[in-house]
Design brief:
The protein is an alpha/beta fold. It is built from 5 helices and 8 strands. 31% of the residues lie in helices and 24% in strands. It is globular, with a radius of gyration of 42 Å.
């Protein structure tokens, strides 16, 4: 008696175990591919869903739409490197023995302002910042430092001078002399860099030399 033909494979009943395993394998492959395509965070969420399916639990819902919108509107950090500010000289610091008379010299005669004072008689030192602008501005500054307890005068053998450009050298020298301060070099003219310059040298109460510079117009006296 002839043997009947074997039924096609599609007609055979599928094993529930084999079918479930096949679905899990396909799900794992799909999850891995999607994770690689969309990035680590999405891949982790997809793998979590596959693991939940493997355990028979329901996968967690995707993040709310407003989270994605917020991320999309968050400005990205600038990748353009910022240019650092150019170096500048902030101030010279001058050691002084007689602090208050020296402050008065630069404020009352040289026209500076006291913009900062650090320390007092109870601290190791006192620092006074004098400026032609505010403390953080572009104007030049000078720091006077007083070591509390020091009685020996400073010797300025390694210090040359502090230079100021002033509108009227002769008038300022007259005021400095009248205030009792020493005039080291009387006002005089020099020629430099194609300009006619009026110069004088005086000393502050601490003995530091101060240069006074005035640029005179070519048609001036």
């Amino acid at each position: 008696m002839p043997r009947p033909l074997d039924p096609p494979a599609s007609a055979l009943p599928r094993s529930p175990v084999r079918t479930a395993a096949h679905r899990l394998a396909l799900g794992a492959v799909f999850g891995l591919a999607l994770g690689l395509a969309l990035g680590p965070s999405t891949g982790c969420a997809t793998r979590g869903g596959a693991e939940a399916a493997h355990g028979g639990a329901t996968a967690s819902p995707p993040p709310a739409a407003h989270d994605s919108a917020s991320a999309a509107t968050t400005p990205a950090a600038s990748t353009t490197p910022s240019t650092p500010p150019a170096p500048v000289v902030l101030f010279p610091a001058l050691n002084v023995l007689d602090l208050e008379p020296t402050v008065a010299f630069y404020v009352e005669l040289m026209g500076m302002r006291e913009t900062l004072r650090l320390g007092d008689a109870t601290t190791e030192r006192i620092e006074v910042t004098l400026s032609y602008g505010d403390t953080n501005g572009a104007g030049a500054s000078l720091v006077l430092q007083r070591e509390n307890g020091r009685t020996q005068p400073y010797v300025f053998d390694a210090f040359s001078r502090i230079a100021f450009r002033v509108p009227d050298v002769d008038a300022l020298v007259a005021r400095i002399r009248a205030a009792g301060h020493r005039v080291v070099v009387e006002p005089h003219f020099i020629e430099a860099m194609g300009m006619k310059i009026r110069l004088a040298f005086v000393e502050d109460p601490n003995g530091a030399r101060v240069e006074l510079i005035g640029v005179v117009p070519r048609d001036g006296a």
